[in-house]
Write a structure and sequence with these properties.
Blueprint: H1 11-17, E1 28-37, E2 40-48, E3 66-72, E4 81-88, E5 95-97, E6 103-107, E7 110-119, E8 124-131, E9 139-140, E10 154-157, E11 163-167, E12 205-209, E13 222-224, E14 226-227, E15 245-252, E16 255-261, E17 268-273, E18 280-287, E19 298-302, E20 305-312, E21 324-330
Length: about 350
């Protein structure tokens, strides 16, 4: 993943211009999945630790080995509370390393932590762990979810009580290696192998309905198609709009808002559909680029107001793999479109 240049950036000045500040500063956190449980905000981020490896396009520099759960009483709290380690990779029988962006859900008093990790064959799978409180500790299932692959799980509960998982990420997230339905190991060191040509439809995130116990897929994963105004799927070469990683789903005024990161062009974008499966019509950007290479987010409603949780690398002074989560209010226009957020004044 190419790193954004940090040359000649005054980070003290940049932090003064930032519209929000890191929610915790004693550790580096990224990819915040925020939820409201029992009237309180709980955030499930990844935990950035420097692996000491050179920056590359496979994410080898991300030494993510555990999850901390953060909590806030309101989105206006200056700082979030770190509730400690909720799950470690050494406790997951099938996982070897790289516990990337997680998510969480609740059903009937049980809390579910969903997470990607590489198994001992170097293949990303998605696992689930359960606990009796939003902060854990979480006990992992002995095996990854059957037919799961790639990264960035995001679990959405619809109004009818059905839960769905959205997931997937290209390049280091390995989604492109599953185009034939089987994992391709050839050219394992190249994240660009197996990608569609620029004039072909872009790779899609995946969606699968979950079983009643929320531990497995109830169906084979399906494509989450993003289309343009003419109903044509976005192309792989349309890098400022097409899906790269970081799925999220929320509803607003009865419509389904699928949001995601464009990865190498650094935007958070969104598309709107009429059902959880889509297709979703591309609508625009949620967030302009932040300092640091990646962009990953979640969106929640709190007491009638909407909030965007995101991250940047301003605290680590631009070291792209050491990020910090933030929050800012999100606003809708009368037509249901989202007002684009600029992270720095």
């Amino acid at each position: 993943m190419p790193e954004q240049s940090t040359i000649h950036i005054d980070f003290d000045e940049l932090n003064r211009k930032a519209i929000s500040q890191p929610l915790v500063k004693h550790i580096y956190t990224a990819d915040p999945s925020a939820h409201i449980f029992n009237g309180k905000i709980y955030i499930y981020p990844s935990h950035d630790i420097d692996a000491g490896d050179a920056f590359d396009d496979l994410g080898s520099h991300f030494a993510m080995e555990d999850y901390h759960v953060l909590s806030m009483n309101t989105p206006f709290d200056i700082e979030a509370i770190d509730n400690g380690v909720a799950l470690q990779v050494t406790k997951v029988p099938w996982a070897e390393k790289q516990m990337w962006a997680p998510d969480a859900a609740e059903k009937n008093g049980t809390y579910y932590l969903y997470f990607p990790a590489k198994d001992y064959d170097g293949v990303f799978r998605i696992g689930v762990a359960t606990g009796t409180t939003p902060t854990g500790p979480f006990i992992p299932q002995p095996y990854a979810i059957k037919k799961s692959f790639s990264i960035d799980p995001a679990v959405f509960k619809d109004d009818d009580g059905i839960y769905y998982m959205y997931f997937g990420g290209i390049w280091g997230g390995q989604l492109q290696r599953w185009r034939t339905g089987f994992f391709k190991k050839e050219q394992a060191e190249s994240p660009f192998a197996f990608l569609p040509d620029n004039n072909e439809p872009a790779l899609c995130a995946k969606i699968a309905k979950l079983t009643d116990d929320l531990l497995e897929f109830a169906e084979d994963p399906k494509d989450v198609k993003i289309i343009d105004d003419e109903g044509i799927p976005l192309l792989q070469g349309d890098t400022e709009k097409r899906f790269f990683e970081a799925s999220w789903m929320h509803k607003y005024n009865g419509k389904y808002y699928f949001s995601y990161s464009t990865g190498d062009t650094h935007y958070l974008c969104y598309a709107i559909g009429d059902n959880p499966y889509g297709p979703f019509k591309y609508m625009g950007r949620i967030l302009e680029p932040v300092v640091g290479w990646t962009s990953h987010h979640s969106i929640i409603e709190f007491k009638g107001r909407w909030f965007l949780f995101y991250h940047d690398s301003s605290l680590s002074k631009g070291i792209t793999h050491l990020r910090s989560i933030k929050v800012t209010e999100l606003f809708y226009n009368k037509d249901g479109s989202i007002q684009t957020v600029k992270p720095y004044h």
